[in-house]
Specification:
Strand content: under 5%
Largest sheet: none
Structural class: mainly alpha
Distance between the termini: 54 Å
Order of helices and strands: HHHHHHHH
Length: about 210
């Protein structure tokens, strides 16, 4: 197979035989997986150029151990984002149901024979329903895209085991983020007090004001 990025440099006959777009089973793979790895591992040259054989192997091993850990962490973050998207989809579905219910009752408060108010009420109800439905379509397309990315054959249901697992991780991650943010704010306030004691409270005031 010829990589998708290099395939167009080959002749047409070669592309028909070896381009991933024409090979059954390649899916969304572009055939350039090694290039992604090399683009990161090439940075090791500066560190290993003058290293001994032992340190050379050690740096390469540590690099790819971190590479694996980073990819698994990114996959975990993607699953958490998938749960957030499912929550947003559920919210938009509730908004769409509310818009439909409001549209069905749009004329209950309009006086009979008042065609101007009837037309305005129907127009407003249609806009609300169409807007809510468009949001659902966008979220469903995003869910389908993430299903492909995560190789999920059946969309997770709200409350399922997989959903609850990453929902708990999402809440735990948010809790850690809030704790770190509070600690940062605490350190910044302590630093401001120290600067105030040294009569340097105006130092960097523009940046601190922007930060807060």
């Amino acid at each position: 197979m010829v990589g998708a990025f290099h395939g167009h440099a080959h002749n047409r006959k070669c592309q028909l035989n070896w381009h991933p777009m024409f090979i059954t089973g390649t899916g969304h793979t572009e055939g350039e997986g090694c290039e992604h790895i090399f683009s990161s591992s090439n940075e090791l040259v500066q560190s290993t150029r003058h290293a001994s054989a032992f340190h050379w192997h050690q740096l390469i091993e540590e690099h790819f151990m971190f590479w694996d850990a980073d990819k698994y962490a990114a996959l975990n973050r993607l699953c958490i984002q998938y749960v957030e998207v499912l929550d947003d989809l559920e919210i938009h579905r509730e908004e769409w149901n509310a818009a439909q219910s409001a549209a069905n009752n749009a004329l209950t408060t309009v006086g009979a024979g008042n065609f101007a108010e009837i037309s305005a009420a129907l127009m407003q109800a249609q806009i609300r329903v169409d807007t809510a439905y468009a949001k659902i379509q966008n979220m469903e397309a995003l869910v389908a895209h993430m299903d492909i990315q995560l190789s999920i054959e059946e969309c997770w249901a709200i409350g399922s085991a997989d959903y609850l697992q990453f929902k708990e991780e999402e809440e735990a991650t948010l809790g850690k983020y809030c704790a770190v943010l509070n600690e940062l704010e605490h350190l910044m306030v302590m630093r401001l007090f120290e600067l105030s004691k040294l009569s340097l409270s105006s130092t960097g005031s523009t940046h601190l004001t922007y930060f807060f």
